[in-house]
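Q: Sequence in, structure out?
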Amino acid sequence: MASTKHNPSPNFDEFGFESDPTLTNDDLKPTRPDQRTFSKWEMACLWIGLVVGVPTYYLAGSLVDLGMAWWQGIATVVAANIILLVPLILTGHPGTKYGISFPVLARSSFGIHGAHIPTLLRALVGCGWYGIETWIGGEAIFILLPNSIKQSYMSQTLPWLGTSPLEFACFIVFWVAQLAIVWKGMDGIRELEKYSAPILVTLTSCLVIWAYVKAGGFSHMLSLSSRLTTNQFWSLFFPSLTANISFWATVALNIPDFTRYAKSQNDQIVGQAGLPIFMGAFTFVGLAVTCSTEVIFGRVISSPIQLLGQIGGFTTIILAIVGVSLATLTTNIAANVVAPANALVNLSPSKFTFRSGAIVTALLGIAFQPWRLLKSSESFVYTWLVGYSALLGPIGGIILADYYLIRNTNLSLKDLYSTSAFGDYYYSRGYNLAAMAALVVGIFPVVPGFLQKVGILVSISDVYVIIYNNAWFFSFFSSGCFYWLLSRLTRKQESQPAQDPLLPPAN
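A: Exactly. Output:
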């Protein structure tokens, strides 16, 4: 929960122990029973808010552009999210059971100091996405402005800036609007997701109905068949599956940041179970509407923002601004603010709160200059998605192997907040060398494929191409298995400690 002040000497009276002040403040403390306010409906609303956004709109359509049939594109998206649902629920379990956030959970496997490495890697990806999503929101404001304003001298690109002053101003307006929501902390995010979900579903349904009526049905989309041979399809399917898994691999890693507020395990599991359905439904919307534009306007309009601007009309403009803004806000704040903010809090609890961490995240989002990133390469998002999965996959594999295979879901809360050399998570001066080694094992083999993808290496072995195309799978399982093996070899042979008797009463 967002706090406005620090606790210089945290005392977990409700849990019966004191914690080290360098590892704790009000944002890192385990959630109390009265803070467990997320029901299954609110968890589902969180995912609806995350799913309904401009990047998701493109997913299936991009696969069809690459040659898949419409149903193959949607099936690939759904399959990826069914697979991702497993680590989502598994990683969400300790958040609900112990009321701890992702940075605190990472201490159990990486060490109380080593946890900074996975949390900052996750934060870096979040900051990049924060800038990209904020630019999309600002672009919506710009495109939907009156032509008289868009055609002014303020719309001329400045070489040193890389964009026009007007586009940059729209970006900053949206940037500020997001901070107003973030300033209220997790309660503000929960309220935003809860009340935005039905609005987004309604506006999305209206867009589908409009496309269906104007195009005289979806026969054009349904007539799209695959342009790929069997071998070509499978060559495209696996990297596409990896890219779609990577789409939410970020949230799958820091999902404890949300499930720590769930009322029960049942609420977090049932609330998240709808993800494949939500993703399948919304990618169908994106594909159906995009295909319909070719019939309605005589050309394909793949951007929902440009489409809404093309439809025109005062009412449409207002609804478009509301819809695109809500869609981008709900996705960006939940997916790309919470993890970086919590990572900074974990880095220095005495200097950062959730609010100040969110402000730093927002500033780094500007520093990423997303307008330059998005214009640098047509395949940026595709390379971005698969590339960063090599960072996040091994972290997830290590954490899950540690929590389920090594510790049998038993954690000691007091040791998670202790710098004692005798603590269970102190390892070697606060760093778990086994986790560090496993992280390298998962990332290193993917590097040649990434360098080849961005043009640094001209050619690489087919083995490295296959590894890169399956980066998340390879890094997740190789790091997890390697960590488990090292831990079994190096960990003292002792019985698992009994479940911490100081746990919050949530199941």
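Residues 29-371 form a domain with the Hydantoin permease fold (CATH 1.10.4160.10).
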